[in-house]
Write a structure and sequence with these properties.
By secondary structure, this protein is an alpha+beta fold. It has helices at 46-56, 61-77, 81-84, 108-112, 114-123; strands spanning 6-7, 29-34, 98-102, 128-133, 137-142, 146-151. The chain is built from five helices and six strands.
């Protein structure tokens, strides 16, 4: 059975913005990923999970047609970060780099079409989660629809007494 959880950042501290000044709302990002780590130690995203099902031969004929048509549509309509910036997922340059979708009007159709992929994962018992953040990490690639980030390293507990 699949599960979907939502993770949100903690509220941000107030700023020293003058009263009445307009500030832009923080950018929002969304990611759909596995709930378990891969052997390489990361949480694969929705496309990696669906592509893995296709490569393993696990898809029914109907599911394969959906997956193939979906991937073709995404390839035709949105940039692939690894094609635009071939080193974006280089493990030495950008360890742990992952893609997040922008929650902007430009990315709305991209995100809306993910539902079929998520249903595909659920049908194969692959647990996934939805993450939302205003600061998912250090941006190493950005276009109108997505960012690729190196996630922030969680702070270690202090040992000072």
């Amino acid at each position: 059975m699949s599960e979907s959880t939502e993770t949100r950042n903690a509220p941000t501290a107030p700023t020293n913005t003058p009263p009445g000044a307009k500030t832009a709302p923080p950018r929002q990002f969304i990611r759909f990923q596995s709930t378990t780590r891969s052997p390489r130690g990361h949480f694969p995203g929705v496309f990696a999970l669906a592509n893995g099902l296709a490569r393993s031969g696990a898809l029914t004929e109907e599911q394969w047609r959906f997956w193939r048509a979906g991937n073709d549509w995404y390839d035709a309509n949105y940039p692939d970060p690894s094609t635009v910036a071939p080193l974006v997922y280089d493990t030495e340059l950008h360890p742990g780099a992952v893609a997040w979708f922008k929650t902007s009007p430009e990315a709305a159709e991209l995100i809306a079409r993910l539902d079929g992929y998520l249903q595909l994962l659920t049908a194969h018992g692959i647990a996934w989660q939805e993450l939302r953040s205003t600061d998912p990490g250090r941006v190493v690639y950005e276009d109108a629809y997505q960012v690729v980030v190196v996630p922030h390293v969680p702070a270690s507990p202090s040992t000072d007494r």
